[in-house]
Amino acid sequence: MTSSEIRILAFVIVCVSAQFAHADTVSLEYSGFYDRLKRVNKNSYPNAELVFSVPLDDNCKILSGSITTESQNYPLTYTKQQQIFLPFDAGLKSDRGLVNIEVAGDASQCAIAMQVRGKTILTHYSHNQLQRILDDMNGLLDALQGFPMKYFRKPLSGLTFEFSRDNQQDLTMKVDGVSQTISNKMTFTTEQVNYVKQIEFSQPPIMISPWVN
């Protein structure tokens, strides 16, 4: 091997090492997730769900994930939007399971967000469907608050629909037959939900989230 080849090889090794030098792993007790999932699962909320996610940030890009106990190792499922899926499993809690997430940057700069999201992703929504999503979100948030704090929680002010930024076509929406162009986010207040009969989007939203004024 010539001296120039050695220098090239050394450069490649340095570059590869630098790529993984800042990778970091955060490990969290599964029991904390289980306790929140247990509250949610006490009642049925078919139109809303509890979502765990890691911020879409270069420092927090997920490289890999796992759920481990002293004797078992399970892969962690996650999406490109960095939403992570956790099972509701009493065994993992009793076995003191850990949720391990390897991120590209400094794990201390990242956090796992717990959010309520709409579960019904469609292009058409009737008044009743919108109302059920709103009601289930309120119910789920009450369950997470617990007694007595749920009685002091301010009800949701509406729903926000978020659409993909990747689509180059104009987004349009029809409200009771009247068409308009919209941005990648559209919010309906509870008052609007009360009187609207039907809404129709040119493409399905990627996310429905609660809105609090």
Automatic annotation (TrEMBL):
InterPro entries in alphabetical order: DUF2987
Superkingdom of origin: Bacteria
Keyword set, alphabetical order: Signal
Signal sequence segment: 1-23
Name of the featured protein: DUF2987 domain-containing protein
